[in-house]
Amino acid sequence: MNTFTKKCIINISELFNQGDIPMNSIKRVKTGIPELDKLLHGGYVKDSSIVVAGGVGTGKTILSLQFLWTGAKKYDEPGLLITMDESPSELRKEAAMFGWDLKELEDENLLAIIDVATPRAGLPSDERYALREVDLRQIIETVYNTQKEMNAQRAVIDSLSALGFHYESLGKIRSSIFQLTAFLNELEITTLLTTESPNNSVMSRYGIEEFLAQGVIQLFLKDDETGNLQRSFIVRKMRSTPHSLNRYFFEISEKGIVILSS
Prior knowledge:
- The chain is α/β, with parallel strands linked by helices.
- The protein has helices spanning 3-18, 34-39, 60-75, 88-96, 102-107, 117-120, 136-150, 170-187, 209-212; strands at 28-29, 44-45, 49-54, 79-83, 111-115, 129-130, 154-158, 190-196, 215-223, 229-238, 247-253, 256-259.
- It has a ten-stranded mixed β-sheet with strand order 6-5-4-7-8-3-9-10-11-12, with helices on both faces. Strands 1-2 form a two-stranded antiparallel ribbon.
- The radius of gyration is 18 Å and the shape is globular.
């Protein structure tokens, strides 16, 4: 850790220690990744919205599924999975590779998968929570009703990038993302929102996602010095908590994401 980063963390910690809101009084939600919990002083800030940005193959969906699975199985915190890119059946298969039985959680009323992807493809869906039409109002209404029905405390929207296919202008896309994130903040539920990074120098596809969320984690997949691909992440922003600005490397193991020791 460089000197500048150390000073930033120390200064932020002092603000918490001297201010009206002590750092240890802020409620946390476990991320599902023990090493990430340590980096964030206990986990995500409760009821915050966190953007998970990255390119193809960086692990956005896996990180999100791990968050929901851990919350349901270890902490009895029901979750919502709003899938806009992959069908629920594809997600169940993907999760099963890590030993995460999403169907079991659904049967126990610990998880609801809201299917936006299948209607988006113009196909019929036999899912319990499937949209009749792909419309922002329908998404918000379904999320609201399902959250109240289950008392869900966690949510994942995978992904925000998919919203762009239903609007003609960038302005309308940004407006819809703003409305959705504002709604989630009012709902008081800890949410991960995945979004595509077009490249490593551009954080999000629409250039607004990172400004509307309370936190941003950016994932990378780059060649190392030997020419092999290596995954890493940086916590770009996390309000109400000190955090390192260092890059951390991770692997996707049979148990999910594991952060490597530095």
